[in-house]
Protein backbone atom coordinates (compact mmCIF):
# COMPACT_ATOMS: atom_id res chain seq x y z
CA UNK A 1 0.00 0.00 0.00
CA UNK A 2 1.31 3.43 -0.90
CA UNK A 3 2.60 5.68 1.86
CA UNK A 4 0.42 8.79 1.82
CA UNK A 5 3.13 10.76 3.64
CA UNK A 6 5.73 10.09 0.95
CA UNK A 7 6.49 12.58 -1.87
CA UNK A 8 4.61 11.86 -5.08
CA UNK A 9 6.52 10.90 -8.22
CA UNK A 10 5.74 11.48 -11.88
CA UNK A 11 7.39 9.80 -14.86
CA UNK A 12 8.35 12.06 -17.78
CA UNK A 13 9.97 10.27 -20.73
CA UNK A 14 11.33 7.55 -18.48
CA UNK A 15 12.67 9.94 -15.83
CA UNK A 16 11.18 9.89 -12.36
CA UNK A 17 10.68 13.33 -10.85
CA UNK A 18 9.78 13.65 -7.19
CA UNK A 19 7.25 16.30 -6.14
CA UNK A 20 8.42 17.76 -2.85
CA UNK A 21 6.34 19.66 -0.42
CA UNK A 22 7.35 23.23 0.46
CA UNK A 23 10.63 23.30 2.33
CA UNK A 24 11.36 19.61 1.67
CA UNK A 25 14.72 18.83 0.06
CA UNK A 26 15.19 15.65 -1.96
CA UNK A 27 18.20 13.38 -1.47
CA UNK A 28 19.56 14.18 -4.92
CA UNK A 29 19.38 17.91 -4.16
CA UNK A 30 21.43 17.26 -1.03
CA UNK A 31 24.02 15.36 -3.07
CA UNK A 32 24.31 18.33 -5.45
CA UNK A 33 24.64 20.71 -2.51
CA UNK A 34 27.40 18.64 -0.93
CA UNK A 35 29.49 18.56 -4.08
CA UNK A 36 28.62 22.06 -5.28
CA UNK A 37 27.05 20.71 -8.46
CA UNK A 38 24.29 22.12 -10.60
CA UNK A 39 22.27 20.35 -13.31
CA UNK A 40 24.33 20.28 -16.49
CA UNK A 41 24.90 17.85 -19.33
CA UNK A 42 28.01 16.65 -17.50
CA UNK A 43 26.28 16.07 -14.18
CA UNK A 44 26.91 12.33 -14.22
CA UNK A 45 30.60 12.85 -15.02
CA UNK A 46 30.91 15.52 -12.32
CA UNK A 47 29.29 13.32 -9.72
CA UNK A 48 31.47 10.34 -10.68
CA UNK A 49 34.59 12.51 -10.41
CA UNK A 50 33.50 13.89 -7.04
CA UNK A 51 32.92 10.39 -5.70
CA UNK A 52 36.30 9.24 -6.97
CA UNK A 53 38.12 12.03 -5.15
CA UNK A 54 39.28 11.30 -1.62
CA UNK A 55 38.22 14.22 0.54
CA UNK A 56 39.61 12.71 3.72
CA UNK A 57 37.65 13.17 6.92
CA UNK A 58 35.53 15.97 5.43
CA UNK A 59 33.52 13.67 3.16
CA UNK A 60 29.86 13.21 4.02
CA UNK A 61 29.78 9.67 2.61
CA UNK A 62 31.33 6.63 4.22
CA UNK A 63 33.50 4.33 2.11
CA UNK A 64 30.60 1.91 1.74
CA UNK A 65 28.17 4.63 0.63
CA UNK A 66 30.73 5.93 -1.84
CA UNK A 67 31.18 2.43 -3.27
CA UNK A 68 27.43 1.90 -3.68
CA UNK A 69 26.98 5.23 -5.46
CA UNK A 70 29.89 4.49 -7.78
CA UNK A 71 28.43 1.07 -8.60
CA UNK A 72 25.03 2.59 -9.34
CA UNK A 73 26.58 5.10 -11.74
CA UNK A 74 28.56 2.32 -13.44
CA UNK A 75 25.54 0.01 -13.76
CA UNK A 76 24.40 1.48 -17.08
CA UNK A 77 27.65 0.28 -18.70
CA UNK A 78 27.35 -3.29 -17.38
CA UNK A 79 26.19 -5.88 -19.90
CA UNK A 80 24.86 -9.37 -19.26
CA UNK A 81 28.11 -10.74 -20.68
CA UNK A 82 29.94 -9.12 -17.75
CA UNK A 83 27.95 -10.84 -15.00
CA UNK A 84 26.64 -14.10 -16.45
CA UNK A 85 27.68 -17.56 -15.29
CA UNK A 86 29.41 -19.22 -18.28
CA UNK A 87 27.83 -22.28 -19.86
CA UNK A 88 30.50 -24.64 -18.50
CA UNK A 89 29.56 -23.70 -14.91
CA UNK A 90 25.77 -24.06 -15.26
CA UNK A 91 24.06 -26.75 -13.18
CA UNK A 92 21.09 -27.95 -15.25
CA UNK A 93 18.89 -31.05 -15.49
CA UNK A 94 17.07 -32.83 -18.36
CA UNK A 95 13.29 -32.90 -18.28
CA UNK A 96 13.48 -36.72 -18.13
CA UNK A 97 15.31 -36.72 -14.79
CA UNK A 98 13.54 -38.69 -12.07
CA UNK A 99 12.31 -37.08 -8.87
CA UNK A 100 14.89 -38.98 -6.83
CA UNK A 101 17.80 -37.86 -8.99
CA UNK A 102 16.43 -34.32 -9.05
CA UNK A 103 16.48 -34.16 -5.26
CA UNK A 104 20.07 -35.39 -5.28
CA UNK A 105 21.03 -32.73 -7.84
CA UNK A 106 19.48 -29.94 -5.76
CA UNK A 107 21.41 -31.14 -2.72
CA UNK A 108 24.71 -31.28 -4.60
CA UNK A 109 24.32 -28.02 -6.54
CA UNK A 110 23.17 -25.92 -3.59
CA UNK A 111 20.86 -23.83 -5.79
CA UNK A 112 17.14 -23.22 -5.34
CA UNK A 113 16.56 -23.05 -9.12
CA UNK A 114 17.89 -25.25 -11.92
CA UNK A 115 17.48 -24.82 -15.70
CA UNK A 116 15.70 -27.68 -17.46
CA UNK A 117 16.49 -28.84 -21.01
CA UNK A 118 15.36 -31.50 -23.48
CA UNK A 119 18.26 -33.06 -25.39
CA UNK A 120 21.00 -30.53 -24.61
CA UNK A 121 21.35 -27.18 -22.87
CA UNK A 122 20.85 -25.56 -26.29
CA UNK A 123 17.23 -26.74 -26.10
CA UNK A 124 16.04 -25.32 -22.76
CA UNK A 125 12.42 -25.61 -21.65
CA UNK A 126 12.43 -23.57 -18.44
CA UNK A 127 13.60 -23.98 -14.86
CA UNK A 128 12.50 -25.89 -11.78
CA UNK A 129 12.31 -24.43 -8.27
CA UNK A 130 13.22 -26.53 -5.23
CA UNK A 131 10.20 -25.13 -3.38
CA UNK A 132 7.84 -26.45 -6.08
CA UNK A 133 9.49 -29.87 -5.84
CA UNK A 134 9.08 -30.05 -2.07
CA UNK A 135 5.45 -28.95 -2.29
CA UNK A 136 4.76 -31.71 -4.82
CA UNK A 137 6.55 -34.27 -2.64
CA UNK A 138 4.53 -33.20 0.39
CA UNK A 139 1.29 -33.44 -1.60
CA UNK A 140 2.07 -36.98 -2.74
CA UNK A 141 3.15 -38.00 0.76
CA UNK A 142 0.03 -36.59 2.42
CA UNK A 143 -1.93 -39.16 4.42
CA UNK A 144 -4.70 -39.07 7.00
CA UNK A 145 -2.27 -39.81 9.82
CA UNK A 146 0.50 -37.45 8.62
CA UNK A 147 3.10 -37.84 5.86
CA UNK A 148 3.90 -41.16 4.22
CA UNK A 149 7.01 -40.57 2.13
CA UNK A 150 6.94 -44.21 1.09
CA UNK A 151 4.03 -43.31 -1.16
CA UNK A 152 6.16 -40.84 -3.16
CA UNK A 153 7.16 -42.18 -6.57
CA UNK A 154 10.85 -41.24 -6.85
CA UNK A 155 11.05 -42.72 -10.35
CA UNK A 156 8.57 -40.21 -11.73
CA UNK A 157 10.14 -37.96 -14.44
CA UNK A 158 10.24 -34.22 -13.95
CA UNK A 159 8.32 -33.60 -17.20
CA UNK A 160 5.27 -35.37 -15.74
CA UNK A 161 5.19 -33.28 -12.56
CA UNK A 162 3.98 -30.07 -14.28
CA UNK A 163 6.22 -27.80 -12.19
CA UNK A 164 8.62 -26.47 -14.85
CA UNK A 165 8.48 -22.68 -14.87
CA UNK A 166 9.11 -20.20 -17.67
CA UNK A 167 12.59 -18.78 -18.12
CA UNK A 168 13.69 -15.56 -19.84
CA UNK A 169 16.00 -15.62 -22.86
CA UNK A 170 18.32 -12.63 -23.27
CA UNK A 171 21.29 -11.70 -25.49
CA UNK A 172 24.73 -11.20 -23.89
CA UNK A 173 24.80 -7.58 -25.09
CA UNK A 174 21.66 -6.63 -23.14
CA UNK A 175 22.13 -3.98 -20.45
CA UNK A 176 22.08 -5.40 -16.93
CA UNK A 177 19.76 -2.62 -15.78
CA UNK A 178 17.24 -3.44 -18.53
CA UNK A 179 17.18 -7.10 -17.52
CA UNK A 180 16.74 -6.19 -13.87
CA UNK A 181 13.64 -4.16 -14.74
CA UNK A 182 12.31 -6.95 -16.96
CA UNK A 183 12.81 -9.56 -14.25
CA UNK A 184 10.96 -7.45 -11.72
CA UNK A 185 8.07 -6.88 -14.13
CA UNK A 186 7.76 -10.58 -14.99
CA UNK A 187 8.49 -11.87 -11.49
CA UNK A 188 11.20 -14.14 -12.90
CA UNK A 189 14.59 -14.41 -11.24
CA UNK A 190 16.47 -16.50 -13.80
CA UNK A 191 17.46 -15.85 -17.41
CA UNK A 192 19.39 -17.89 -19.96
CA UNK A 193 21.85 -16.01 -22.14
CA UNK A 194 21.61 -17.09 -25.78
CA UNK A 195 23.72 -16.30 -28.82
CA UNK A 196 22.55 -15.25 -32.28
CA UNK A 197 21.99 -18.89 -33.25
CA UNK A 198 19.89 -19.70 -30.20
CA UNK A 199 22.63 -21.60 -28.40
CA UNK A 200 23.02 -21.20 -24.65
CA UNK A 201 26.02 -19.06 -23.65
CA UNK A 202 25.37 -18.66 -19.95
CA UNK A 203 22.96 -17.96 -17.14
CA UNK A 204 22.20 -14.89 -15.05
CA UNK A 205 20.04 -14.47 -11.98
CA UNK A 206 18.51 -11.44 -10.33
CA UNK A 207 20.97 -11.97 -7.48
CA UNK A 208 23.87 -11.68 -9.95
CA UNK A 209 22.53 -8.31 -11.10
CA UNK A 210 21.98 -7.00 -7.58
CA UNK A 211 25.52 -8.04 -6.64
CA UNK A 212 26.90 -5.64 -9.25
CA UNK A 213 25.69 -2.85 -6.95
CA UNK A 214 25.86 -4.18 -3.38
CA UNK A 215 28.70 -6.67 -3.77
CA UNK A 216 28.77 -10.40 -3.23
CA UNK A 217 25.73 -11.89 -1.48
CA UNK A 218 26.82 -15.06 0.26
CA UNK A 219 24.57 -17.72 1.70
CA UNK A 220 25.12 -21.06 3.42
CA UNK A 221 25.91 -22.71 0.08
CA UNK A 222 28.51 -20.20 -1.10
CA UNK A 223 32.23 -20.75 -0.67
CA UNK A 224 32.04 -24.39 0.49
CA UNK A 225 35.83 -24.69 0.85
CA UNK A 226 38.01 -22.95 3.41
CA UNK A 227 40.17 -20.13 2.00
CA UNK A 228 43.78 -21.12 1.45
CA UNK A 229 47.18 -19.42 1.25
CA UNK A 230 50.56 -20.75 0.17
CA UNK A 231 54.09 -19.35 0.40
CA UNK A 232 56.10 -18.70 -2.75
CA UNK A 233 59.54 -17.14 -2.95
CA UNK A 234 60.83 -15.15 0.02
CA UNK A 235 58.24 -12.58 0.97
CA UNK A 236 55.65 -13.73 -1.59
CA UNK A 237 52.28 -15.30 -0.71
CA UNK A 238 49.49 -16.59 -2.93
CA UNK A 239 46.15 -16.43 -1.18
CA UNK A 240 42.43 -16.69 -1.58
CA UNK A 241 40.99 -13.18 -1.30
CA UNK A 242 38.79 -14.48 1.54
CA UNK A 243 41.77 -15.22 3.80
CA UNK A 244 41.29 -13.34 7.08
CA UNK A 245 43.74 -10.53 7.80
CA UNK A 246 44.54 -12.00 11.23
CA UNK A 247 45.23 -15.44 9.72
CA UNK A 248 47.54 -13.93 7.10
CA UNK A 249 49.47 -11.95 9.72
CA UNK A 250 49.95 -15.09 11.83
CA UNK A 251 50.98 -17.32 8.93
CA UNK A 252 53.24 -14.79 7.22
CA UNK A 253 54.73 -13.44 10.46
CA UNK A 254 53.88 -9.81 9.72
CA UNK A 255 51.69 -7.10 11.19
CA UNK A 256 49.79 -4.59 9.11
CA UNK A 257 49.98 -1.00 10.37
CA UNK A 258 47.07 -0.12 12.63
CA UNK A 259 45.57 2.31 10.13
CA UNK A 260 42.06 3.67 9.77
CA UNK A 261 42.05 2.05 6.34
CA UNK A 262 41.78 -1.41 7.95
CA UNK A 263 39.17 -0.61 10.59
CA UNK A 264 36.29 -2.29 8.73
CA UNK A 265 38.37 -4.81 6.76
CA UNK A 266 38.39 -8.53 7.55
CA UNK A 267 40.02 -10.15 4.49
CA UNK A 268 42.91 -9.65 2.08
CA UNK A 269 40.44 -8.90 -0.69
CA UNK A 270 38.87 -6.31 1.59
CA UNK A 271 42.25 -4.57 1.94
CA UNK A 272 42.61 -4.27 -1.84
CA UNK A 273 39.07 -3.00 -2.16
CA UNK A 274 39.57 -0.48 0.67
CA UNK A 275 42.64 0.93 -1.07
CA UNK A 276 40.98 1.30 -4.48
CA UNK A 277 37.34 1.85 -3.51
CA UNK A 278 36.30 -0.50 -6.33
CA UNK A 279 36.71 -4.04 -7.58
CA UNK A 280 40.06 -4.23 -9.40
CA UNK A 281 40.73 -5.97 -12.69
CA UNK A 282 42.82 -9.09 -13.07
CA UNK A 283 46.55 -8.31 -13.15
CA UNK A 284 46.22 -4.98 -11.36
CA UNK A 285 48.97 -4.18 -8.82
CA UNK A 286 47.84 -2.25 -5.76
CA UNK A 287 49.90 -0.39 -3.16
CA UNK A 288 49.15 2.27 -0.58
CA UNK A 289 51.33 4.71 1.40
CA UNK A 290 49.24 3.72 4.41
CA UNK A 291 50.53 0.15 4.10
CA UNK A 292 54.25 0.55 3.32
CA UNK A 293 56.05 -2.69 2.63
CA UNK A 294 53.06 -4.48 1.12
CA UNK A 295 52.18 -4.95 -2.55
CA UNK A 296 49.01 -6.72 -3.74
CA UNK A 297 48.58 -8.21 -7.21
CA UNK A 298 45.11 -9.33 -8.29
CA UNK A 299 45.46 -12.82 -9.76
CA UNK A 300 41.79 -13.47 -10.34
CA UNK A 301 38.66 -11.30 -10.20
CA UNK A 302 35.32 -10.82 -11.88
CA UNK A 303 33.16 -7.67 -12.11
CA UNK A 304 31.73 -8.38 -8.65
CA UNK A 305 34.54 -9.60 -6.44
CA UNK A 306 38.22 -10.30 -5.95
CA UNK A 307 38.99 -14.03 -5.94
CA UNK A 308 42.72 -14.50 -5.53
CA UNK A 309 45.68 -12.24 -4.74
CA UNK A 310 49.46 -12.33 -4.55
CA UNK A 311 50.95 -10.47 -1.60
CA UNK A 312 54.55 -9.31 -1.88
CA UNK A 313 56.22 -8.27 1.36
CA UNK A 314 59.16 -5.89 0.89
CA UNK A 315 61.18 -6.55 4.02
CA UNK A 316 63.67 -3.77 3.31
CA UNK A 317 60.88 -1.28 4.07
CA UNK A 318 61.17 -2.16 7.75
CA UNK A 319 64.19 0.08 8.04
CA UNK A 320 62.18 2.90 6.46
CA UNK A 321 59.51 2.83 9.13
CA UNK A 322 57.24 0.51 7.22
CA UNK A 323 55.45 -2.66 8.25
CA UNK A 324 56.41 -4.62 11.31
CA UNK A 325 58.00 -7.72 9.79
UniProtKB/TrEMBL annotation:
One of its GO terms (cellular component) is plasma membrane. SMART domains: CorC_HlyC. The keyword Cell inner membrane does not apply. PROSITE patterns: CBS. It comes from the Bacteria. GO terms for molecular function: flavin adenine dinucleotide binding. Pfam families: CBS, CorC_HlyC. The keyword Lipid biosynthesis does not apply. Keywords: CBS domain, Repeat. InterPro entries: CBS_dom (IPR000644), CBS_dom_sf (IPR046342), FAD-bd_PCMH-like_sf (IPR036318), FAD-bd_PCMH_sub2 (IPR016169), Ion_transp-like_CBS (IPR044751), Transptr-assoc_dom (IPR005170). Residues 84-144, 163-220 form the CBS domain. Belongs to the UPF0053 family. Hemolysin C subfamily. This is HlyC/CorC family transporter. It comes from Acuticoccus mangrovi.
